[in-house]
Amino acid sequence: VLLKIHAAFGVDVQMFSEDEEARLIAGLREALADVSAADPVSLAEIRELASNMPAVGRSLINLHRRYGDAVERLETMAARLGDDRGSPPGAQPMHFEEVRNFFIARHNHIEEIDKQAERLFVECRIEVGNAAEGLVRRLAQRHDVKVVYADGDAALLKTDIQRQYDPKSRVLRLSPHFEPGQHAFQMATQLAFLEVNEMLRQLTRDDPGLSCEQARALARIGLANYFAGALVLPYRQFLDTAQTMRYDIERLGHHFGVGFETVCHRLSTLQRPGARGVPFFFIRVDRAGNISKRQSATHFHFSKMGGTCPLWNVYEAFAQPGRILTQLARMPDGRAYLWIA
After folding, report:
1. Are 69 and 94 in contact (CB under 8 A)?
2. What is residue 101's predicted lDDT score, i.e. its pLDDT?
């Protein structure tokens, strides 16, 4: 029935998906668990609220998020009271949360950027597995930008700076520590700001979820990174290859000349209507359990507060470098997931 509706009216069948309701239920469970421990709200009641009054549910989640932001700011201020050497904090946690929600609302797929990146891939005559050559040529011919691999740059050698662009001299310096695929990604990110910056601004300008210019600037950085991945790994070609290779991450990395993390990140964006890939979510975490990046094309919801599960196979992966570990896990909502670490 859904396929017939799609064929007749062009309606995206994902409109009928339970993903949004599942996210809402997960968010409500997290929020209500924090404030009603003495008198817990049952899962049946939460499901009823999410199904019948979703706007009320979203409002409760927003209130809980603001509460969490306030607690975090208070703890930051308390930690700085006795340390006058601390520098003022940069972006508030609320702004990063707004940007995360910006991508979640779009299922981590930005169709406008993917299409533009595919057009540019052809126009720049970029070669699969050797994207850097075409990007160097594009930067030089279209924008008069010289790319320097800063092997002798002491400033870059001593810092974690990945990309440094000087608009006056029109020189782009890249970290000497990178692999060729990482150099290509950084060049593509800079190309996003030079060539599609107005598109990035249009996508963020009127979004009601981005409350201020600082949040919009963070979102534009995220979109530029998205564009870089879409240019180095163009949607249709990457999806076809992923399906042919049965989503073998290492083979995909060798084929496209990029690293394991870049492939995983791109897999989490393959949600084009009519040409969807297997829905992935991608999480980068350190040994202490701190999550530094999360991207999801699914309804999977990661708690924004509290710790991670000690049984998670990512911790075992740290003890076995070079090995790929798998784990089947079932969440409280009854859904099962395959973890790859």
Report:
1. yes
2. 85
> What is the structure's pLDDT at 211?
86
* Whether 211 contacts 98, CB under 8 Å: yes
Query: What is the 8-class DSSP label of residue 127?
Result: B
CA-to-CA distance for 33 and 237, rounded, in angstroms? 44
Return the structure tokens found at 14: 């994902």
CA angle 232, 236, 239 (to 5 degrees): 90
How far from chain centre, in Å, is Cα 154?
Answer: 31
Distance CA 144, CA 142 (A): 6
* 122 and 258 assigned to the same domain: yes
Tokens of 132: 């850097």
What confidence score (pLDDT) does residue 16 get? 52
Looking at the DSSP bridge assignments, the partners of residue 337 are 329
Percent of the residues in the chain that have a pLDDT greater than 70, as a whole number: 78
What is the span of the domain harbouring residue 203?
111-308
Distance of CA 73 to the CA centre of its chain: 24
Q: Are strands 291-296 and 326-330 parallel, antiparallel or unpaired?
A: unpaired
DSSP three-state, residue 174:
strand
The CATH number of the domain where 169 resides is what?
A: 1.10.10.2910
Kindly report, residue by residue over 247-277, the tens digit of the pLDDT.
999 999 999 999 999 999 999 999 999 999 9
